[in-house]
Each structure stands twice: as C-alpha cells, then as structure tokens.
Amino acid sequence: MKVIHPVPKLGINYFIMLGILKRKGEKVKKDRSGIKVGIPKFLNIWGTHQFWVGFFNHLGIKVVFSSDTSEEQYRQYGKGRITMDSCFPVKALAGHIGELLAKNVDILFVPMIYSLPSFLRGHVLDTVSCTRVMMAPENIKAGFTREKDEFSSRGVRFISPFVTFGEPELLPKQLYEALKEFLDLSYQEVTQAVKHGLRSLEDFDAYIRGKSLEIVKWCVKENKPAILVLARPYHMDTGIGHEIDVEFQTYGYPVLWYNYLPLDDWLLNWLFGQEVKAGIIKSPFDISDVWTSSYSSNTNEIIWAAKFACRFPWITGVIRLSSYECGMDQPTFTPVQKIVESRGTLYFKFGELDETKPAGSIKIRVETIVYYLEKYSADIINKKLSMLPPLPKELS
Ligand code: SF4
Asked: Which intervals hold domain DUF2229 (predicted)?
C-alpha cells in the first residue's frame, strides 16, 4: 500500500514559495507600478529567481513568471521558433517567451547568466553556467525575430543582459546598463536593488536548506531512508524533470534536492571531518579529491552532493536526472555513480528526459527502485554508520 509521507517535500512547491520570503522594499520614490516585467521560468532562473523578485520589487516593478514547462506550452507558443538543435531545457524557452508575450508584459527580461552564486565559491575553480544556458536567450530570440520582430510589433522590450553572479560586484553596472534606456533609474537605485536581491536570494536559500535539515533530522529520529535527487536546478520544473521525485514521495520516501542540502558545520564535520583531519581534503567543501576541472557551477554542486549522499547514512538511494542531448552531464555520469556507490548507496539514472513524459516507464522503474530500497536500506544505513564517528549531539 502506498503511504503519503508526512514530511514536507522539496522541489515541487518551490516556486510557490516565492511569495513567502518577499522582502519589504524600502520606499520606492518613482511610481513604476504600471510596469510589468515578464521573466521566463527557465534554466538558471530556477537558481536565481529570488534575486530577480527582490531586485525588481525594490524598484517598484511587478514581476510575472511564465508557468512550468509543459507540452502544451511548447506546442502552442514554442514550436517553429527553434533555430538550432539543442537539449530540451533550452528549446523549452521558446514556449515560455511565447506565453509571456501572450500575457502582455511590457518588458521581457531574459538574462544571459554567465556565472552562478554557489556555496562552493572559493573551493572550486569557477562557478560558470553551461554555455547553452548562457546563450539560450539570444538563440531563442532569433526564432521570434527572423521573419518579423514579434517583440517590437507588440511594443515589448526584449532585454537580455549578461550577468555574473560569480562576481556580484559587477551586477549593478551590468543591470544599470541594460535597464537605464527603458526605465527611469539611477545607478544608486540599481545598486540598492542588487543588494536587496542578493539578500532575498540568501534568505531563500537559508530557508530551504533549513527545510532540508528538518527532513534529515526526521530521517534520523524515525530511522527512515530518504532519496537524494542529483540533477540541474531546472529539473524541478515539472515539465523538465517530469515529477519523478513525486513518485518516490507517494511510496513514503522523503526527497532531498542536491542544491538545497543542509550546510551546518556540525553536520559537515561529522560527515567529512575525518578526511579533513587526514589531509585528504582541505575542507568539507573540497571536491578536488574526485573532480579536478571544477569550473561548472551546477556540475560542482552535483559532485559535492554525491559525496554528501555517499556519506550520509539515511540517504540510501540517489536518483540522477538528465536531459536528452545534455553534453555537460555526459562526462559526470561515471564519476558520480562511483562516488555514490563507494559506501553502498544505491544509484539510479533517468537519462534522456525530453518533452514527453514517459509516465508508464517511469512508474515501472520507480516500482523496481522502491523494491531495492526496501530490501537494502536497513543494511546501507548500518554500513554507512559504521564508517563514521558517533552521531553528533544535534542528531542524537
Ligand atoms: S547543462 Fe545540459 S541540459 Fe542544461 S542547458 Fe546545458 S546542455 Fe542543456
């Protein structure tokens, strides 16, 4: 019998949480309440959305996001707009842009995100985005302008600034240059709005990681296994990740996402402290022992989370999601699997995800995986516990 898990799930209600942490803006001097900015909910907007909400709210501007990706959205608004062959997460952007055009926004804001905010900054070589992510706005824009300019014909401004969250001190200049022509803004205002956005993003991050910690503590207290999803942030989009994590929740398994694991010192010292002491790694955030070309932000975090999952006893299964034609994921499959399995954690991959949800095959695979989880989780927990120091007081 299926049991609905009592622990709050992560991922699916992620965007609904947008409203929860809205910061109160300082008083905005100019009235911009009539301006509607549309932001497509695509690719790395999934990891930076709260910044954009905080930034535009501080300027007194309303933000409208597109819906989750869906086959209908893609068929209705996106098909025929694609000018290059690519992975589906990039192609799906066309549907999001078409949907926002139909919502009569004044500005379509589609940032080219060069680098990402990451808790691993300082421990890795860089935190850049996949090149397809960076270039997606310009690529997709071409599909809306090659015959007729669909933006200017509707009086919509298409703004696509190059932004570097890896060097946040550059953000005010990048955003001021992009917006000054269309909005009556001062550089100072933009600088304040950037600060506001970054604080909003930090608050949101801390909030979700706190929720993950609740799940971790619950698993320890109840001695129940959990599942970790290793993916890209946009696999939280129901039309990109196809809600595979939800299938596991219906079987009673709480799901943690790789990009929101708890980062509390006491927890990381418990999991990684022995290796730090032995000089194998410099800190709990060091991934150089398993991954030397640490340039890509999402990939670095996937690798780090694989190390976390391999050590944390109550994560007994890891689900890897990957999209069709993802060149970035290919070289990571074997190393990630090896890391995860090195202390006995079970590893399962759902690769080649595309626009169509293969509902039947997902269900069959989930049932099979659940069988293995039920059979082996207790042994995995005990084995992994035996390889760690005693439980920290926060978990006992
Ligand atoms: S990381 Fe993979 S799925 Fe994501 S945009 Fe790049 S190629 Fe596409």
From this structure: 36-259
Average pLDDT over residues 10-26: 46
The pLDDT confidence band at residue 12, using thresholds 50, 70 and 90, is very low
pLDDT band at 27 (very low <50, low <70, confident <90, very high): low
Q: 351 — phi, psi (to 5°)?
A: -100, 175
DSSP designation for 259: G
What is the residue with the minimal CA distance to atom 3 of ligand 1? 326
Find out whether the beta carbon of 134 lies less than 6 Å from any atom of ligand 1: no
Q: What is the mean pLDDT of residues 207-216?
A: 97
Q: Judge whether 145 and 21 are in contact, CB under 8 Å.
A: no
Q: Do 366 and 251 form a contact (C-beta atoms < 8 A)? A: yes
Cα–Cα distances in angstroms (integers) from residue 288 to residues 151, 280, 295, in the given order = 46, 9, 12
Q: Model confidence over 52-101: pLDDT tens digits?
A: 999 999 999 989 999 999 999 999 898 788 777 889 999 999 999 999 99
Q: State the DSSP code for 40.
A: -
CA 231 to ligand 1 center in whole angstroms? 10
Read off the pLDDT of each residue in 224-232 and give the average, rounded to a whole number. Answer: 97
90 C-beta closer than 6 A to ligand 1: yes
Instruction: Name the residue with the closest Cα to ligand 1, atom 2.
Output: 326
Q: Residue 202 and residue 374: Cα distance in Å, rounded? A: 37
Q: What is 64-99 written as a DSSP string?
A: EE-----HHHIIIIITT---S---HHHHTHHHHHHH
Average pLDDT on 327-353 reads 96
116 ligand 1 Cβ < 6 A: no
For residue 33, pLDDT over 90 is answered with no
Q: Is 87 in the pocket of ligand 1 (CB under 6 A)?
A: yes
